[in-house]
Amino acid sequence: MEILILPTAAHAERLAARIVADRLTAKPNLVLGCATGRTMEGIYSELVRISQAEKLDYAHAHTFNLDEYVGLHSTDPRSYHHYMEEKLFAHVNLPREQTHLPNGVATDLTAEAASYERRIKAAGGIDLQLLGLGNSGHIGFNEPLSSLMSRTREKALTPQTREQNAGMFNGDPAQVPLHALTMGVGTILEAKEVIMVVTGAHKAEILATATEGPITSMVSATALQLHPHCHVFADEAAAATLVGREHYRWTFLNEPDWAPYQGLLG
Ligand code: GLP
User: Fold this and answer.
1) DSSP string of 74-125, one letter each residue
2) pLDDT tens digit string along 41-75?
3) pTM exceeding 0.85
4) N or C terminus: which one in the chain shows less Cβ crowding within 10 Å?
5) For residue 140, is it left (φ>0), alpha (ψ between -120 and 50) or beta?
6) In what order do the strands lie in the sheet with 67-69?
7) Are 34 and 3 in contact (CB under 8 A)?
């Protein structure tokens, strides 16, 4: 795992979007793992800006989202289908049949989960997975005690997660669906590269637990410590309590892999 500390959330979002754009340019049939949530909004809007300015071609790309609420139809404005359409899909030339999200209204959710895993495999696996970090330490909707080897399946959402995501549901946690279909921790760990973006002072404590704490199924994001190619982009506010923050700042400024991206600090 590599942690990079960027001055602000906007810098972290810009860096993440730039890397997605670069990976797509290098591999036109990129399989991109998409996340949702507030953190991702800035990344998608920057990615759309870059995509239009540089005429990026998504004709051969595929996307797989981490999760979807159970019971929400794809046309529901609170669904992640709708989120992705609004934030990314409508603005780039990505054929809709190459975009994939779990179907939260499938009659057989177990079969849907298994078919989602098969679709990921058939596409050649995920090249780059974007992640946010839930307040409960979840990635996707892998709530505490999710097996670190779990696969796509239905999960119940904790009160903390329903509280965090109430914004789209009239601010009322009780209106947030109780269940979601989510990729498992094991599914996420199979992505060839992972970028987790964490911003804001409210994420400082859980970011420290996720990255510098022991690996535990109580905090599914700790499993990323096992991933051979995982980068965490944090802003100064989220990184404020990291024990190794001096080293992480040094990493971005000195590791050769990041030299091409120094300009984004300007
Ligand atoms: C939801 C999603 C997660 C996302 C998290 C972070 O719970 N299922 O994939 O990482 O939100 O949300 P935010 O970026 O709004 O803090």
Assistant:
1) TTSTTSHHHHHHHHTGGGS---GGGEE---TT-S-HHHHHHHHHHHHHHTT-
2) 999 999 999 999 999 999 999 999 999 999 999 99
3) yes
4) C
5) left
6) 67-69, 179-182, 153-156
7) no
Q: How far is the CA of 87 from the centre of ligand 1 (A)?
A: 15
Write out residues with Cβ below 6 Å of ligand 1.
35-39, 66-67, 132-134, 140-141, 161, 165
Spatial separation of the C-alpha atoms in residues 36 and 67, rounded to whole Å: 8
At residue 180, what are phi and psi to the nearest 5 degrees?
Answer: -140, 155
Rounded Cα distance between 158 and 61, Å, is 34
CA of 36 to the centre of ligand 1 (A): 6
Ligand 1 atom with the shortest distance to the CA of 132:
10
How does residue 104 score in pLDDT terms, banded at 50, 70 and 90? very high
Distances (CA, A) of 102 to 108, 132, 190: 12, 18, 18
Q: Which tens digits make up the pLDDT trace of 7-49? A: 999 999 999 999 999 999 999 999 999 999 999 999 999 999 9
Q: Give residue for tokens 């071609």.
A: 57
Take atom 7 of ligand 1 and give the residue whose Cα is closest: 134
